[in-house]
Fold this sequence. Notes:
Chain A has 2 domains: about 40-145 and about 290-360, 3-Layer(aba) Sandwich (D-Maltodextrin-Binding Protein, domain 2), CATH 3.40.190.10; about 150-290 and about 360-405, Periplasmic binding protein-like II (D-Maltodextrin-Binding Protein, domain 2, 3-Layer(aba) Sandwich). Chain A has 19 helices and 15 strands. Chain A has helices at about 5-25, 50-65, 80-85, 100-105, 115-125, 130-135, 165-175, 185-190, 190-195, 215-230, 240-245, 260-265, 305-315, 320-330, 335-340, 340-345, 350-355, 370-385, 395-405, and strands at about 40-45, 70-75, 95-100, 135, 140, 145-150, 150-155, 175-180, 235, 250-255, 270-275, 280, 285, 290-300, 360-365. Chain B has 2 domains: about 1-60; about 65-285, MetI-like fold (Orthogonal Bundle). The longest helix of chain B has about 40 residues, at about 1-40. Chain C folds into 2 domains: about 15-200, no CATH class; about 205-445, MetI-like (MetI-like fold, Orthogonal Bundle), CATH 1.10.3720.10. Helices cover about 70% and strands about 0% of the residues of chain C. Chain C contains 19 helices and 2 strands. In chain C, a hairpin with a 4-residue loop joins strand 1 and strand 2 (about 85-90). The longest helix of chain C is centred in the first third of the chain and has 38 residues, at about 95-135. The two termini of chain C are about 20 Å apart. The chains are: A alpha/beta (about 400), B mainly alpha (about 290), C mainly alpha (about 450). Chains in contact: A-B, A-C, B-C. The interface between A and C is large, with 72 and 90 residues.
Amino acid sequence: MKKNWKKILLGGVVLSMSMLVLAGCGSKSSSSSSDSSSTQNIKVWIDTEHVAAIKGQVKKFEKANPKIHVTVKAGSSADALKDVSKDPEKAADVFMMPHDQIGQMADAGLLYPVSKKYTKTVKANNVQSAIDGVTWKNKVYGFPYGVESQVLYYNKAKLSADDVKSWDTLTSKGKLGTNFAEAGANYIFTPLFMSNGDNLYGKNGETVKGTNFNNEKGIQVLDWIAKQKSNSGVVQTNAAALSNLQSGKTDAFLSGPWSKNDVKKALGKNMAVAPYPTVNFGSGDVQMKAFLGVKVYGVNQQTKSPVAAMKLANYLSNEATQKVEFNKNGVVPSNIKAQGLQAVKDDETAKSVMTMSASDHSVVMPKVPEITNFWPQMDSIINDTYKGKIKSSDYQKKLDKVVSVSAKKSN
Amino acid sequence: MAKKEINYKAQKKRTKLLVYAILTIMSVVWLFPIVWIVLNSFREEGGAFVPYIIPKHFTLSNYAKLITDASGNYPFVRWFVNTLIVSVCTCVLSTFITISMSYALSRLRFKLRRPFLKVALVLNMFPAFMSMIAIYYILKALNLAGSLLALILVYSAGAALTFYVAKGFFDTIPMALDESAMIDGANKWQIFTKITLPLSKPIIVYTALTAFMGPWMDFIFAKIIMGDDVKNYTVAIGLYSMMTQTTANSLFMTFTAGCVLIAIPITLLFIYMQKYYVEGVTSGAVK
Amino acid sequence: MFKKYSTEQHITFRELFMKGGLPEKLSFIIMGFSNFANKQILKGLIFLVAEVGFLFWLIRNGIHALAMLQTLGTKKQGLVYNSKLGMDVLQKGDNSMLILLFGIAAILICIVLVVLYIVNLKSARHIFELKAAGKPLPTAKDDLKSLLNERFHQTLMTVPLMGVLFFTILPLLYMISIAFTNYDHNNLPPKNLFTWVGFHNFSNVITGDIASTFFPVLGWTLVWAVVATVSCFFFGVILALLINTKGIKLKKMWRTIFILTMAVPQFISLLIMRNLLNDAGPVNAILKSWGWISKSIPFLTDPTMAKFSIIVVNLWIGIPATMLITTGIIQNLDQEQIEAAVMDGANKFQIFRSITFPQILFVMMPSLIQQLIGNINNFNVIYLLTGGGPTNSNYYGAGSTDLLVTWLYNLTVNTMDYNLASVIGILIFILSAVFSLWAYTHTNSYKEG
């Protein structure tokens, strides 16, 4: 048997390659300097639709801070957790994200807590609900730049402002296109439980064992959802909501400020906006609630230049930028002063969102990490209840399961 | 007798008509989605969902939007070039690798050949999602993450385990050819290059075609490697990134235009090469 | 001629050490020494460089990487207040995930070196034996030459196998290891460390509360894989027979029509199908406008209907490939055999049943098995068409149409329970591996290889 010449070669190559791998890994774990003398490079992830608006603001920021160089890249705020956790070192220094990912991202060490100085700024300039949204375990983890909640868009030609004040008149006089039966129903209809007095993760939204849907009131809500199946004023619509609105198949639609321009396209001058109606679960009219979301700039904990990154995040969430975002993308400001601008006050959608953002109209979306267990469970229960797949005698059992799953720490 | 003949003929004609009818119906079903994509790419009005098939207004602006990249976020031409580079390189490398592997495993005899065949069979059966993150970090350690080279490397590395079809083909070439050449004093390298390869055109084309098409279709793994490097995206990641929740409605027609543009070269290639493709797959066991 | 396995007797390494001279003895410590002593400079150099490089790496990174593997890290990432900057500053800690990955890489490197070390000893022994027999030693040129002949397989396979080692085996080992850790949404790096937990996750999946999701999903995965594979095969063969019916004109055109669909990337055709079959999509719209239905058919939103739709859409994707291959087989059929059968009075159906079909089955068997395995792992169709939906209140993190593999994807991307995902991955792996090895050893089509 001859010697394996080639195996030797192979071994050599493999060894050197592997050493490259390991050397590469070894040398990474070194510095995280916050050197402020030379030029600092900051990368920021912006939702594609917002890139144009933000680029202008970034230019102004760079002019004011010549030592900071900012690269704007298109990102996806909804995937912030996924994208940042894949490789925090390569992720952006500053990124857009929804506030409900703050809990999980902070616990995983992906978010930089906002420094004392900026914490004061954030608290001084924003509405309370936005501050609640970015606070996690008594620390502020992000810079709010907008609030959003679902509102009721409707067709003025078919429904009057009085008609849309209660669910019953709304669905008896017109047709509401909404989604009970498909994925995503959890976002729209979970707050029904809170409308009826139940809690999701406690009153503050941070108590892991604070969900109490499995009571009398919770069953009332499921009963009500099951009844909507036979309500001819409720049309199950998901992806086609906008085209249904346009074709006149439906007259109203629950969605957030992000749909404003699309609805305008669909309804033209007949577009009207209102806060959510009241709803009757059997014991009198109560305000139908929605989830309140806060749009946030997060700072990556692994950033090489935390000072510069926070400066930028602060700039991108200040009054001036919020004004630009409102004008160009319809983002409803979280900044108190920006909310007071005449243009914002005159905007019907913004006005409704601002009404909705008060605590009697909405619930700040909880940010406990355990909510990832809760979502799919809730989604399927709303879907199945609406479709009549769950017997009313099983409601208690299903809600018990939701509550136990929602508090599950680990598997 | 004559009557029977006529009956037989009539029946044959009926059968033929029936076959034509079935084929026509099936063709319509198969072509419908494709025609619909093409029609959508010329549609001017509406969003992702419209309750009709034929657009009310035809336009070329979807294509124009794609090619000029007015928004600066979707550099389609660049993506197209990237994909072309990746797929050509992958095609060359993986064809080389697959053919080498399958030839060695089919024609040469060495220790551990049979165990290796079995191990290779099952190695690819692990769901790839979590290994993707691992591969990403390996590439990052090699300083390659986010580059086209990384894609080429990974796609080609995968080719080492996809040798079964080609091996089946080589198995059918008679050993006698090799033996007579060896008697004439040829070494194995010469047998491989001068005798086996010239006989293997169908399988080479098949392998190359399969390898070439891969990069046009992969949207998950490529995205993990590329991350936020939009300029290095391939068309598959790029087009898929247009279909996020917030953009799906407004960019749907642009998306279909992109689909048409990438389907054209692959379709042409496929139609042109289908003869070899069939031979490559079947000849392994037919002869 | 091809079976030249060495049958000669070698002395053991212990004998080599006892009997050999200084160069042989030193080869046990300094790799390649015997080659140097016998003027095989190049070869000796490669051994030596490998050893020195390895030791250098071992001291610099290797020992650390291997030692960390035991605990997967002990130092947590933290924030320390820096009064100069007026803010917290990051103190990096250990990253369990990277420790695990590169620890496994380090083990692989050690294995490679052990292999090299044995090769080195064999080389020393070979030199020793040749010299004892009084034969000339091969020169570097001889060695290179043999790479194109006796050891041609090494020339062909080395580079590809390197790729396999780094891009398939290493990630695979990493993935398998995760199943034995508590890498879930409560222990996400970089801030948190995760550690070894033994078989805890397995018992959780098989008997714990995850089991109520696992077994139904497994059931649907198997049903789907079998139905999808068999239906594509069956209808593909029928289509090929139709096109190849005697007297049908424009055969090539018909074929091309169906082949068109193979050339459209799957993610496109599936996204389009999803749109077409939407409750508000064109298909429902047309049926309504024709007055065939009054309410939208819930193609993808009703659990049973969705399963059915998925299988039908999969037919759309899968039939052309089978058709193409079957056509190739039909055209290559032994015509004499068929004519002989006709002479004997066999009708068309009999010919099909006893000649055509067995041949098709024989040729297609390996690809059918591959398709079956592929369907067990068919991510695209489910993910792009229904995303696993519609939701199912009885499951944990899965929908009614989720396969094991898409559920696994959800677990990594949405709930970030990597450990559970890995367990499911291992179970899928065992399932497919056992099946395909069984098929490999029990079907005729594989036997000749």
